[in-house]
Design goal:
Oligomer: single chain
Strand content: 25-35%
Number of strands: 8
Number of domains: 1
Distance between the termini: 20 Å
Largest sheet: 4 strands, antiparallel
Structural class: alpha+beta
Shape: flat
Order of helices and strands: EEEEEHEEEH
Length: 152
């Protein structure tokens, strides 16, 4: 992902979750300052059957203070965390449901995207990735309509 300004944008409703951000395909090591009006070329992650996501700190300057840092988590990366305490915590909440089904929890995975200024975590059953030639300046509804029209 772009190390200068990936500008992550989250679009979600009850059933669909997208995170869209700039990816620097040409030079993964160079820092860039993005012009969100004119720059194009974003990566779209669509998470399938998500049940929860979080977004916020830490950023690249404070990620060493996060509990996952002992697992080797770094900024500007994508991870799947195995044996997730986050999933176990959600499963424990779900156990009071009258139709609780332990089997469904084996399908969920814990995904983590670390950006320059923040971190995104998601519990979902899977994901797809597409590259789009659009700018993040477009209104969220336009981006979402374009993604849904392609049925990613």
């Amino acid at each position: 992902m772009d190390k200068g300004a990936p500008s992550p944008t989250i679009i979600s409703n009850d059933t669909e979750l997208f995170i869209v951000f700039y990816m620097d395909i040409d030079d993964m090591l160079a820092l860039h300052q993005r012009n969100i009006i004119y720059d194009s070329g974003v990566v779209v992650f669509k998470f399938d059957k998500y049940i929860k996501y979080t977004f916020g700190m830490p950023g690249n300057e404070t990620i060493q203070g996060h509990p996952y840092s002992k697992l080797g988590i770094k900024s500007y990366s994508f991870y799947e965390l195995k044996n997730s305490d986050f999933i176990k915590e959600l499963q424990n909440i779900d156990k009071i449901h009258p139709y609780y089904n332990q089997e469904k929890w084996y399908k969920y995975k814990h995904y983590i995207l670390t950006f320059h200024d923040n971190m995104f975590e998601c519990i979902a059953q899977g994901f797809t990735i597409n590259e789009e030639n659009i700018t993040l300046y477009n209104p969220a509804s336009l981006i979402l309509n374009k993604m849904l029209a392609k049925d990613i």
